[in-house]
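step 3/5: co-fold with adenosine monophosphate
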Amino acid sequence: MVDARPEVRPAPRLRVIFLGPPGAGKGTQAARLAAWGKVPRVSTGDMLREAIAAGTDLGRQVGPLMEKGSLVPDELLIGIIQERLLGKDCRNGYILDGFPRTLRQAQGFETMVGGDLTEEMLVFDVEVPRSELLRRLSGRRWCPTCQSTYHVDNKPPRADMLCDREGAQLIQREDDKEVAVARRLAEYDERTAPLIDYYRGRSRFFRVNGYRPPDAVFQELTRIAEGRA
Ligand code: AMP
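step 4/5: write tokens
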């Protein structure tokens, strides 16, 4: 007899890597996608900034590198991610925002999770023209208390230079200043952009145009995540 019960499939796990240069909107899209997919957003930049704010050994080690716009050593990042992904909340998936950023990190991650899982991963390469990246980064303002980001033109706070959530004074991150931005973009070109080829052949890789309103980008991401694109 044919079993007429509908097939019960486990919900697909949402595991995502965001590539793309600084200022491409990865953080915004990663946060929205995490809320949509009910999985945590794992932002290495946020984790490192929290370590700096808390004055831990890690924070003291990475602070000067981050201020300059340089990447932090691979082994530190691989260790941080390995520990974070053991968290119970990561069992059903996660959105990686800012990791991996080098070939060494990508290889370390693959060793951690295995080749099968790497094949299942969705990898979004968010592309934005360089002139627009510079405009976005130079106008970015940041709440040191809750890490929310604003933009002087595109997304100003309600009250002049105060965080909508915390009321804290917004600041310009040291690494959003001109010299550090140039270094971050150079680091991206040299060390992160090669991951595009690495993941193109290994995972479910999608190039996404990030030079559009955030809602349009998000719609495309969810279409892809649902297998509709
Ligand atoms: P983000 O907020 O993702 O732009 O990261 C800010 C800074 O944190 C970067 O410029 C690096 O100094 C450091 N950082 C974050 N993630 C990584 C990573 N995966 N590898 C090396 N450095 C990182």
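step 5/5: annotate
Strands lie at 14-19, 41-43, 93-97, 122-127, 140-142, 149-151, 204-209.
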